[in-house]
Amino acid sequence: MRHRAGLLVIAVSFAFAATGAGADVTVSSDPTSNITCSSGVCAPSATDAVLNVGDLETMLASGNVEVTTTGSGVQANNIDIGARLSWSSPNALALDAYDSIAVAAKVSVKGRGGLALTTNDGGSGGTLSFGAEGGVTFRHLSSQLVINGATYRLVNTVQSLADTVRANPKGNYALASSYDASGLTQYSPPSSLAGTVEGLGNTISNLTVTPRGLFVDGLVTEIEASGRMENIGLANVRVSVPGAKNMSYLLGGLASNNYGMLFGDRVTGRVAASGFASVGGLVGYNFGTIAGSFSKAQVKTTQGWVGGLAAVNEGAITGSYASGSVTSGRQGYAGGLVGGNLGSITDSYAAGPVTGERRAFEAGGFIGWNGGGNTPTLVSSSYSTGQVGRANDGGGFIGLNGGNASANASGVTDCDWDTTTSGTETGVGSGPDAGLTGLTTQQFQAGLPTGFNPVIWAENPKINGGFPYLIANPPVKK
């Protein structure tokens, strides 16, 4: 069901947790240590345990294997896959984690074997996540995939994904492998997703989406409140709509509207419109939650709302970033992360340039227009570094801040912008700037800013240009 995008505030709370080190069961090329395997079950004998990938592959050749974080009197937290793993037998692998499962290398199910993944088996806040080189592939679509007790149907093309979601929007689906959509002449996205699409770290490349009414989508039109799209990549996506008078378009690389959960998703390419439109690299309007995701897509509109990650946020964004260029035309609201914000944004950053071709109304390195007064927002522990170009109200962090100066109703705390790279000493183009601090590039690179949690953020001269980066969502070059 489609919903007209309105200015409705939805309060969402979300705790974004990174997997920790030192209490994990790790599958790697190192020798097996502190773990005991018996009758097909491998359990830790100490909280820091290693299972050699060759040993695991040998066991899978002869039978089913379960790797768990719970041993006799021992409780580890997470399971980390740090080495390439593959098997061709019809046997199944089960990974059962107290908290999280993190896949940093390729896992290939080459035979008709299965895979079962369980997170939060006793713990809470755990996730299934994939690093830049991590992913799971299946050679046979008949293989069984079970995640947290739910069975997933495997698909291997973008059109088959769309067709199965359209036939049953409430189902659970997973990409069996990455897919190049460059040969697809016409893509017809499903109108809604109420179930789950799990990308397993795989990527759909070179997808082109053409106009279809007022909603111009990437993979789907709308993600319902019960819908989830996780760990999926869109590379070199092209979403565009030509100019039209008296029309209002809603565009996103992944979806037009999100009322559900987006986690671990990533987009590169271009999302653009001529005419009045709301354009976001990941989604057009976000009413739900976006976590651990990023967009490097170039986004552009001649009029309306435009943001590197989302055109408008009325839900929650956490642990995410955008680094693509953001361009607005003769009128509009442009922000490095979001064009307009009426929700919450925490532990996120924007690094792309924000410009207005004909002096955009409001342009900010992080937010174009931030609500306030009767629509309080929460923006915390975030920063921006992108250059801010021509605008009537241009700010290094916010273009127009609608908050009350005395009460700081705009809810901005512990947020910063780079006065060197942004080209401006002004944090807010118009409105109160409470909670903002201007830092030079040298100051940014000298240590984490005030209010940035070192469990979530880190700095390294060789990562992200020396700027703060998210430990659970590090920047990627691709």
- Biggest sheet layout: 32 strands, mixed
Helix percentage range: under 10%
- List the domain count as a whole number: 2
The mean pLDDT is 89
Give the end-to-end Cα distance, rounded to a whole number of Å: 35 Å
Per the principal axes of the C-alpha atoms, what is the gross shape? globular
Q: In CATH's first tier, which class of the largest domain applies?
A: Mainly Beta
CATH architecture of the largest domain: 3 Solenoid
CATH topology of the largest domain: Pectate Lyase C-like
How large a portion of the residues is in β-strands, by DSSP E?
over 45%
Q: What radius of gyration results from the CA coordinates?
A: 22 Å
Structural class computed from helices and strand pairing: mainly beta
Let me know the number of strands.
Answer: 53
Report what the structure shows.
This protein has 478 residues and is mainly beta. It folds into two domains: 24-147, no CATH class; 181-470, Pectate Lyase C-like. 6% of the residues lie in helices and 45% in strands. The protein contains four helices and 53 strands. The chain has a 32-stranded mixed beta sheet that branches. Strands 20-25-29-32-36-40-45-48-50 form a nine-stranded parallel beta sheet, covered by helices on one side. Strand 2 (35-38) and strand 3 form a beta hairpin. Mean pLDDT is 89; it is low at 1-21 and 404-409.
